[in-house]
Amino acid sequence: MEQCFEEVLKQFEPMVYHLINKYRIRDVEGDFYQEATIALWRAWKDYDETKMKFSSYVYFRIDKALLSLIRKQNKQSDRDQYYVTLFRGDSVTEDFNLSIDFVWLEQIKQLLTDKQWLWFKGHILEDKTLKMIAEENGVTENAVKNWSRLAREKLRACHRPNFVE
Questions:
Q1: pLDDT tens digits for 60-101?
Q2: What is the CATH number of domain 5-73?
Q3: pLDDT value at position 87?
Q4: CATH class held by domain 101-163
Q5: pTM given for the model
Q6: Which of 95, 83, 91, 97 lies closest to 130, judged by CA?
Q7: What is the pLDDT of residues 96-133, one digit of tens each?
Q8: How far is CA 80 from CA 44, 52, 59, 75, in A?
Q9: How many C-beta atoms lie closer than 10 Å to residue 86's C-beta?
Q10: DSSP secondary structure string for all residues of 2-56
């Protein structure tokens, strides 16, 4: 390839937007655009002209990258929902004033960092969205997602029955 990547990006940017629109992706933070651009760059670097047309290869790589990111986000969303239902089950929210196991919550608080606790308290106990938690704490939504991921890893290691010492 004799073109520089900026020229390739300019040429194939409409394809990137077409694929984002094809899957009806709402890309507020630009994650999907970035993933598509990385896929385009990889296609540009890896392209073997003996196998297929460059435009077909680019379409395939970008399409595959976007679908992978969609699957990844769906899995993350499913896992988040699992933990929300796990920790919101009968013991936490049915009768908030009577059924909270404060000892258990204090143990969870001790296990988590301050930021992870902010996620747990806001998202699990108070039913706030990640965006709301991010805005309240002056951070990005991705930062809150990271707190969530790290907290869930710690919580996964400590099931409630085995958690009490």
A1: 999 999 999 989 888 887 777 777 776 665 444 444 444 566
A2: 1.10.1740
A3: 65
A4: mainly alpha
A5: 0.50
A6: 83
A7: 444 566 777 788 888 899 999 999 889 888 889 999 99
A8: 36, 40, 31, 9
A9: 14
A10: -S-HHHHHHHHHHHHHHHHHHTT---SSSHHHHHHHHHHHHHHHH--TTTS-HHH
Give the tokens for residue 128.
């706030």
Burial profile 141-157: b = 16 or more Cβ within 10 angstroms, e = fewer: bebbbebbeebbeebee
Burial of 78 (0-12, 13-18, 19+ CB in 10 A): exposed
Distance CA 84, CA 148 (A): 11
Q: Give the residue extent of every domain in the chain.
A: 5-73, 101-163
Long-range contacts of 74-77 (CB under 8 A, 24+ apart): 76/145
132-141: pLDDT as tens digits: 999 999 999 9
